[in-house]
Amino acid sequence: MQNFVETNRQDLEKTETTQRLRNFDEIYQFFTSRQVRKQGERCVQCGDPFCATIGCPLQNHIPQWLEAVADRDLERAFLLSNESSPFPEILGRVCPQSHLCEGACTLDDGYGAITIGAIEASISDLAFAAGLQLPFPGICHSERVAVVGSGPAGISCAHFLLRAGIGVDMYERADRPGGLLTYGIPGFKLDKKIIEHRFKLLKKAGLQLHLQQDIGKDISLSELVEQNDAVFVGIGATMGRGSNLPGTDLSEVVLAMDYLIAKQRQLFGEAADPQFSMQDKRVVVIGGGDTAMDCLRTAIRDGASQVSCLYRRDEANMPGSHKEFHNAVEEGIEFCFNISPREIRREAEGMLCVEVEKTKLGEKAADGRQQIEIIPDTAHCIPAEVVILALGFDVCPLPELKSNDIEIDHSGQIQIDSATGVTSNPKIYSGGDCYRGADLVVTAAADGRKAALAIMQKLLG
Ligand code: SF4
Prior knowledge:
Blueprint: E1 13-14, H1 17-20, E2 28-29, H2 33-40, H3 50-55, H4 62-70, H5 74-84, H6 88-94, H7 116-129, E3 144-148, H8 152-163, E4 167-171, H9 180-183, H10 192-204, E5 208-210, H11 221-227, E6 230-233, E7 239-240, E8 253-255, H12 256-267, E9 282-286, H13 290-301, E10 306-310, H14 322-330, E11 334-336, E12 339-348, E13 351-364, E14 370-374, E15 380-384, E16 386-389, E17 393-394, E18 428-430, H15 433-436, H16 441-460
Parallel strand pairs: 3-4, 3-6, 4-5, 6-18, 8-16, 9-10, 9-16, 10-11
Antiparallel strand pairs: 1-2, 7-17, 12-13, 13-14, 13-15
Helix pairs in contact: 2-4, 2-7, 4-5, 4-7, 5-7, 6-7, 8-16, 12-13, 13-14
Bound molecules: iron/sulfur cluster (SF4).
């Protein structure tokens, strides 16, 4: 251990740019056993590991699994990394580590943080490839829990309940499980086979998965409450936020999640929807978060002739992951910072003008962010054939919340006890984006785990 002077931080190799634009395959090559060991050996084994205690929302046993890989004990590393996390092979891929565990690593100050995310995903990839198994006991209790939604929070809750031997019925309205992981995160960041594999493990552990079950239509929430000992609601926040901008009702203006879902459905073999065709078009994406990056990088793979991102602040203030921003730049995306749209209008058949003004950052507001000021007399037109709005998400309200005594706030977010995840109905728990608003996959996973532990405590004592 502590080989951080002799061994430099090694980031994952990426597929060469022109090659990666030809398909939607993952762009990173994850570590070999030797690389995992070499990178794990760099860990300093801090007495108070901030990577885990401050950086990771799951408080994963990071120094312990780094020590295990350094000791060439893949099985111990695999079991430790799966102990606190419901899907380390996914979180190691999709977490914005520079803001989380790696940003809190002691070595980040000068030597280069440990490549925690890459090692985490590589451990599970290598272990699964070697045929290692996760210890699920099988269903050994009579109590049953219904989980509504098969996204990150739902999977996490189901995982920890199954690991305690509690039976879980999971209800998903789509035709495939995974929610945001399947339909919202493009394959070049997260291969869909990885999600399918995780669900195979959960089904083997006893999960009963019910697809194409829309709560309120195919089965009611009240029935689930009656038939089960507890219910977990993890329906995410999937309703794309529109804008008051004039012109967003034009047919060439689409919402980010609608586009990403349509594209993924096409990649699963469904017929392409012509409304979402980007072939040979000039595409403008409005927004600066990770979903905007996903749309930009999807559109360029989808054959767009030019893809630009309009963002009201500067590069330093982009909310999205820096890693994904750099990947987008490498792939030829044009970024226009300090630009605020004020209208979208059709100039000719199939040609839009996104009228924008230049901005500058002013005084800090109450939330700590600098306010945006419009620079007068700077209006100009950015031509586009498709505009994608990536302006955030709201909760898509589930029917029957009120009739089941579940409190929601003015924006439709479910209110819970933050220590246990229980709602105002003592039999119903919740967490993830439908409680927080759109947030990270890892915070949804942490919420699902917290609710599972509270449910176990209540049902099994
Ligand atoms: Fe880092 Fe995310 Fe893994 Fe936690 S779950 S160790 S934050 S990559």
